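Posting this for the archive.
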Amino acid sequence: MKERKLKDRQYTYTANLKLKDNEAPAVVNLETGVVTQAEFEHVKEQPKDKTMKYFDIDEPFSRTFTKSWKLLETQTTVREFAVAMKLANRARAYTNDLRPLNADSSLREIAEELNENKDAISKIIEKLFKLGVIASFEVSEHNEHYQKYWVFNPYLSFNGKVIKKGLEDLFSNTTYALLIRGAL
């Protein structure tokens, strides 16, 4: 019978374990009997809600797509690009909505919210709409009044680990969506 020499080779084992919150995997050295906590990788699970699209990115909350922002930078002036960045930072988690901003907001309100000149904000917002950076969304919700609000393009950036599939579909034919999916 042959003995295995553990020092000659390094073995790597993979195992799926179900542990409680107060438990951790351990490694036992067969030669010394020393027990140490095992190193492990956390595997991200797909969300159970099929209306949500899962983006496998390691950053914990805010997501940005560099290719899209680089393209946007070539399509806009410095001021327009800055307004787009401000809007991206205002987007709410999971829905990317920009409430209270909407088509009924006055130019003064929009300018104050974005800390911009009220004389220039109209043309900037109009251009961002034409480029597909923002969209207007209108809905009559159950037991609530008719609502209008703006939504930021999730193919530029969004907040959260998942984004609602319906929102993704709203922007699916924009230049930035095609760029991210590799169609451009």
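The first strand starts at residue 26 and ends at 28. Strands lie at 26-28, 35-37, 52-54, 62-64, 134-140, 146-152, 157-159, 162-164.
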